[in-house]
Amino acid sequence: MTDSTADAGKTTTGGSPYDVVVIGAGPVGENVADRARAAGLTTAVVESELVGGECSYWACMPSKALLRPVVARADARRVPGLSAAVRGPLDTAAVLAHRDEETSHWKDDGQVAWLDGVGADVFRGTGRLTGPREVTVTAPDGTEHRLTARHAVAVCTGTRAVVPDLPGVAEARPWTSREATSADRAPGRLVVVGGGVVGVEMATAWQGLGSEVTLLIRGGGLLPKMEPFAGELVADALGEAGARIRTGVSVTAVRRRDPGGPVTVELDDGDHVEADEILFATGRAPRTDDLGLETVGLEPGSWLTVDDSCRVEGTDWLYAVGDVNHRALLTHQGKYQARVAGAAIAARAGQAAVDTAPWGAHAATADHAAVPQVVFTDPEVASVGLTLAEAERAGRRVRAVDYDLGSVAGAGLYADGYRGRARMVVDLDREILLGVTFAGPGIGELLHSATIAVAGEVPIARLWHAVPAYPTISEVWLRLLETYRG
Ligand SMILES: Cc1cc2nc3c(=O)[nH]c(=O)nc-3n(C[C@H](O)[C@H](O)[C@H](O)COP(=O)(O)OP(=O)(O)OC[C@H]3O[C@@H](n4cnc5c(N)ncnc54)[C@H](O)[C@@H]3O)c2cc1C
Ligand SMILES: NC(=O)c1ccc[n+]([C@@H]2O[C@H](COP(=O)([O-])OP(=O)(O)OC[C@H]3O[C@@H](n4cnc5c(N)ncnc54)[C@H](O)[C@@H]3O)[C@@H](O)[C@H]2O)c1
After folding, report:
1. Which of 31, 152, 264, 338 gives the lowest tally of CB atoms within 10 Å of its CB?
2. How far is the CA of 124 from the centre of ligand 1 (A)?
3. CA dist list (Å): 43 to 12, 46, 150, 331
4. 169-282 — its CATH code?
5. C-alpha separations of 122 from 57, 86, 113, 246, 349 in Å
6. Which residues of 142-154 are buried (b: 16+ CB within 10 A; e: fewer)?
7. Homologous superfamily, domain 379-485
8. What's the DSSP call for residue 312?
9. Test site for ligand 2: of 55, 198, 215, 437, most ligand atoms within 8 A of the Cβ
């Protein structure tokens, strides 16, 4: 590992230029560096917090560690002969201790060692663009180090949580996803604002770990970007678990008079809710406000618009990969973009052919057509591609085919009284699938079959020959195809 070594307050210029400089060592920056190194390009990576990024320490990993026992218990409670054995509460302290293990106790030695292993030089500090192909790193001790890039700078700085600017919000010290994933105890009462993925996952986790959760939704339901039945099934299960869900309400003010005391949440219908903590799960903003974008003619604080090779429009050297380009705010999709962008940087550096045609080696085409996502709630929700509403908005001639998952033999064996639903959105002109959504216990691992069908544009006539094993939940594929064929 290389560190910035200049005297405090001084600026030093790095030795020879690197081929590639990556700003941000989250999952995406790590993978851009890996691909660049694999192509033989010298690579520097700049990280201001922990190598591994939001995903490893305050997002995917800790949230799933909190959710796993909650969902496993809900599943077990639906198995005859097992349910009585899992009636009691979870051991919250043990769950939190396991979460701490999964985050390596918020230490990044393992991930730094991995980057060392791929041969990238790691610079600790905040990276800022100070001109074309130039990044200045300010180390924690204030020293500055200037890096130059021969071929590419890749911005992989991710996002931060957005907290609405409401009266009293700063004094109330609300939770964002960071506190919700790293808290060392379950609050007695937790208000969650926002019914997107973070809101429903964290409501599920903390309700299961012993908090009394109230979910405040300004719209009509949960998970508004997905098929409507997904949010309805999750809302039913959250309600049965004891959470309160209030739709059509907005928070107007938050008050916490005593720093150790309760928080009062004022609502636009004149009512209020009292709680011990309030979590704002109200979306994300790009971490580009302090990135020196103005030095290269771009707007500070903006999402970085890129082409399909993840190159920022109007430049031939600047790439923006992962959350920061706003294409698909998911770890696996950002890592896919990193593989594409890394290959494109290497091809352009070597003046080799660049294939940015749809589904080409240097085009992140799946971002438009086949983004998979699993929401790890009870029940799980898994989707890929377009919803019916999205396909209709795009002007496609489509038909939605639905099936009650509870009627599949494998689902009945999985859980007593299994509740769930599946939908495939069929492109009637090409007879391929544009999107698939499953909502039900244990369906997360089913998703990749749908991703292959959608990304592969597998004709329905051929899917008919992909025979699901009996008696698994995946037999829903057969039922969907039979329903389509009438
Ligand atoms: C609660 C929660 C749960 C989630 N769960 C999932 C999930 O289950 N599955 C999934 O696919 N996605 C999930 N996501 C989304 C996922 O976390 C992001 O898509 C992913 O982290 C994006 O990776 P990234 O590398 O683009 O950005 P990040 O992970 O945000 O990493 C960016 C890195 O850049 C660094 N950085 C920022 N600015 C600078 C700078 N100027 N100089 C140097 N370094 C800088 C940051 O410190 C950080 O380490 C979740 C998100 C949240 C909030
Ligand atoms: N399992 C997963 O894959 C997973 C888990 C968590 C997060 N993520 C990703 O992280 C990203 C961020 O998730 P998120 O849930 O923070 O964002 P989101 O955009 O999905 O949801 C935010 C919700 O908050 C609502 N909202 C915004 N401002 C509000 C306000 N002032 N008052 C009330 N409600 C308000 C929005 O209408 C929206 O429904 C998403 O893109 C998501 O895909 C993925």
Report:
1. 264
2. 17
3. 18, 10, 10, 21
4. 3.50.50.60
5. 19, 47, 10, 47, 22
6. ebbbebbbebbbb
7. FAD/NAD-linked reductase, C-terminal dimerisation domain (3.30.390.30)
8. B
9. 198
* pTM of this prediction exceeds 0.90: yes
Q: Is 46 in the pocket of ligand 1 (CB under 6 A)?
A: yes
Residue in 191, 197, 303 to alter for ligand 2 test, most ligand atoms within 8 A of Cβ: 197
Matching residue, tokens 């309030």: 278
**CA 17 to mean position of chain CA atoms:** 33
Tens digits of residue pLDDT in 91-137:
999 999 999 999 999 999 999 999 999 999 999 999 999 999 999 99
59 CB within 6 A, ligand 1: yes
Topology alike, domains 4-52+108-160+286-366 and 169-282: yes
Cis bond leading into 471, ω under 30°?
Answer: yes
The answer to whether the complex's ipTM is over 0.90 is yes
Q: Would the pLDDT of 5 be above 80?
A: no
Residue with CA nearest ligand 1 atom 52: 59
DSSP for 338-379 reads HHHHHHHHHHHHTT-----STT-TT--THHHH--EEEE-SSS
Other residues' Cβ atoms within 10 Å of the Cβ of residue 313: 11
Per-residue model confidence as pLDDT tens digits over 361-410: 999 999 999 999 999 999 999 999 999 999 999 999 999 999 999 999 99
Q: What is the CATH code for 4-52+108-160+286-366?
A: 3.50.50.60
